[in-house]
Amino acid sequence: MSNESEKAPVGIIGGTGLTTLAGLEITGETECTTPWGSPSAPLVEGQLGNQKVVFLSRHGNPHRIPPHQVNYRANLRALYDAGVRTVIGVNAVGGIHREMGPAHVVIPDQIIDYTWGRPSTFFEGDLEETTHIDFTWPYDADARATLVAAAKGRSVPFSDFGVYAATQGPRLETAAEIRKLERDGCDLVGMTGMPEAVLAAELGMRYVCLALVVNWAAGKSDHIITMEEIEEAIEQGMSGVKSILEASMADLGALTPKSS
Ligand SMILES: CSC[C@H]1O[C@H](OP(=O)(O)O)[C@H](O)[C@@H]1O
Ligand code: HPA
């Protein structure tokens, strides 16, 4: 690619607390469909600084699609068709690790999938051959390093490690389930990390997670989880997430595609 205007856009999938991306200079909006159906919302094209971005609200706009009913295949394929080859999944999560309390930002390095019944591969139906992709490192190393470098330059409390537990939802977990996840080695818990990560990998895209802790996971504090505390943590922490996004965008845009 020879000049700025030909660079591929970076994809941002916004989750809870990030239905729209303030600061994105919007240049267009595209309703689209894919062989897997329609994405959760129209793709919003724009500029974040000098970087072209395609933004997609995971739960729709307004936020109405629960985590187990998101059409992850359509979301990832729509971004792919829009030319995106690097995707940042922004997630609200519960904190399990003792350093990961409300308003803490985490750039996880691993994931464990506890979801069930979700269409989680593009490789099905009438295939010429079976395909088993490598998924040892679910998050792209270069994109992770870029986010970590950007986070270091800001006054945002963050961790550059963590195992994300993807649960089925939409209910939150029991305290015993969280203890089990902890024994499994999980540090944070959310409901949308899978199959999003693996579908991006199947399409050959770079994928990275930028997570904001919005509550202590069940049983990790002396109170039950309320939407009020979640909203408060979003209010407190999402500006840090946005500043990391803004600071990392140009470098994420400069990453060469894994495949074309
Ligand atoms: C109590 S909020 C739960 C909701 O928030 C997270 O969404 P996302 O990952 O899209 O930010 C979590 O996965 C649940 O869907
Ligand atoms: O505690 C949680 N559990 C699962 N998903 C979540 N998303 C935000 N908080 C949580």
TrEMBL record:
Cellular component GO terms, alphabetical: cytosol
Chain sites annotated for binding substrate: 191, 215-217
Any GO MF annotation of the entry: S-methyl-5-thioadenosine phosphorylase activity
Family per record: Belongs to the PNP/MTAP phosphorylase family. MTAP subfamily.
Origin species: Marinobacter salinexigens
Enzyme class: transferase
Site (Important for substrate specificity): 173, 227
Claim: rRNA processing is one of the keywords in the record: no
Further remark: Although this enzyme belongs to the family of MTA phosphorylases based on sequence homology, it has been shown that conserved amino acid substitutions in the substrate binding pocket convert the substrate specificity of this enzyme from 6-aminopurines to 6-oxopurines.
Job description of the protein: Catalyzes the reversible phosphorylation of S-methyl-5'-thioinosine (MTI) to hypoxanthine and 5-methylthioribose-1-phosphate. Involved in the breakdown of S-methyl-5'-thioadenosine (MTA), a major by-product of polyamine biosynthesis. Catabolism of (MTA) occurs via deamination to MTI and phosphorolysis to hypoxanthine.
Keyword Transferase: yes
Residues covered by the Nucleoside phosphorylase domain: 9-247
Superkingdom as given in the UniProt entry: Bacteria
Annotated residues for binding of phosphate: 16, 58-59, 192
GO biological process: L-methionine salvage from methylthioadenosine; purine ribonucleoside salvage
Protein name: Probable S-methyl-5'-thioinosine phosphorylase
UniProt pathway annotation: Purine metabolism; purine nucleoside salvage
